[in-house]
Amino acid sequence: MPSSTLPFEILFDLINDMSVDVVFEITPLAPGRISKNVLLGRGRSVSLVLNAGSTYRYMLLTSNRASELSVQSWNDIRCTASSAISGSGLPSGLSCKTMEYELPKYRH
Questions:
Q1: Which domain of life is it from (predicted)?
Q2: Alpha-carbon gap, residue 80 to 107, rounded angstroms
Q3: The domain that contains 85 carries what CATH number?
């Protein structure tokens, strides 16, 4: 029996379970496009509808860490900010590269 070739959508949920605010950045793949930022307070979440099987890239930022998220899945994904920032306990279909950074110190 042939399988369906019609595209379908999945839901990507990111929940901020951390004690600090995080910034979720939707980064466009096309050059010249402007990224969109969503500030997620403690306990807040963002849900995105994605095309199943397509690859999407996002950034998750705290005051001293950044995680580059790569999402490609055929099923709905529910992820917490703490697992994305730490890089452990990630659901299937989600990978990340985490880096630490130091905010610049301003002189008066």
A1: Eukaryota
A2: 36
A3: 2.60.40
Closest CA to 77 of 14, 8, 7: 14
Taking the CA atoms of 40, 13, 29 and 88 in sequence, report the sign of the dihedral they define.
positive
pLDDT, tens digit (0-9, with 9 covering 90-100), for 9-36 = 999 999 999 999 999 998 766 677 778 8
Tokens of 74: 């055929």
pLDDT of 97 reads 86
Domain count of the fold of the chain: 1
| The pair of three-digit structure tokens given for residue 49, joined into one six-digit string | 């509808």
For residue 35, being part of any structural domain is answered with yes
Tokens representing 55?
A: 């690859």
DSSP the chain: -PPP----EEEEEEE--SSS-EEEEE--SSTTPPPEEEEE-TT-EEEEEEETT--EEEEEE-SSEEEEEEE--SS-EEEEHHHHHHT-SPPTTEEEEEEE--PPPPP-
Sheet holding 45-51, edge to edge: 45-51, 9-15, 77-80
